[in-house]
Structures are given as C-alpha cells and as structure tokens.
Design a protein that fits this description.
Layout lengths: L32 E5 L2 H12 L2 E5 L2 E8 L6 E5 L19 E5 L2 H11 L2 E4 L1 H4 L5 E5 L5 E6 L1
Parallel strand pairs: 1-4, 5-8
Antiparallel strand pairs: 2-3, 3-4, 6-7, 7-8
C-alpha cells in the first residue's frame, strides 16, 4: 500500500499522523480491551483457553481479571452488577464491540470454541459464499468472529 501524505485518510479509514506530531503527543499503546460481564473469572478462563493465554487476577480486585500471553492486546473482563448480554443481531441490547480472531482452521477452531462454552450465532460462510468468517457468542454473550486467515 502506498504511503499516505500527512493528515490524509486511506480508503480503510487509516490516517497518517501529521509530521509535526511528536511521540509524546499521541497514545502509543492500547493497554487492554475490557469486556463487561457478570463473572470475570469464567470469561477470562474462556478467552485464555481460546487464545492460548493465561489468566492474570488481582487478589485485591475480584471484579477485574485480565488475559495475557497471546499475540495481541490483552483482554480484561470486568464485573458489572446487573450485566445483561448484548443481543445479536437484534438491537434491543446492541453490541458495543465485537472481537475478530484470525484462524488457520475454521472448523477446528469452531469445535474448540464450542467446547469451551461459545455458542454459534451465525455461520456466515455457509450463508454468503464470499464470506470467510463465523459469528459466535462468548459465555457472557459478547459476539466474536473466527475469521479464516
């Protein structure tokens, strides 16, 4: 992909930072993606197994559990009293985000995700011939996709 001129946006929406902006003027790292849930330990264990990571819990804060040790930004699972899972594709309780994971074996990774507690929301690749992903819900109901790499 050709380099962008400073301040210009690509078709995908990526913007080249203006040349005058210094490193101290920007946020350089996404520390974690936090997912609301009722049971942060259960959700962290699910993602640790799915991604080959490890659960990192703070003994002083049982409401915040992280998943580290896999390629990518750590995930945090945050307890929310009265948590209600998003509905997908409905909009009564819309998703706030969803996670996409690259996989080399869609069938194999689907079996693993289901064994860990995921549920199938849509096998998009079987509905749309040009699609290379499937949509699932994690044990707390958050949508995520397994995308054939």
């Amino acid at each position: 992909m050709p380099a962008l001129a400073p301040g210009r946006t690509s078709r995908a929406g990526a913007t080249q930072a203006p040349e005058e902006r210094g490193v101290a003027d920007v946020i350089r790292k996404l520390q974690a993606v936090a997912l609301d849930c009722a049971d942060p330990v259960r959700l962290a264990e699910f993602y640790a197994e799915l991604l080959g990571g490890r659960v990192v819990a703070d003994p002083d804060d049982a409401g915040w559990v992280e998943v580290h040790g896999f390629e990518g930004t750590p995930l945090a699972c945050q307890r929310v009293d009265g948590y209600r899972a998003p509905q997908w594709p409905g909009q009564d309780r819309p998703q706030q985000l969803h996670l996409d994971f690259d996989v080399d074996d869609l069938e194999g990774e689907e079996k693993r995700a289901l064994a860990l507690g995921a549920t199938v929301l849509e096998r998009t690749d079987q509905i749309r011939p040009d699609a290379n992903w499937r949509v699932y819900a994690d044990p707390a109901g958050h949508p995520f996709c397994l995308c054939l790499h």
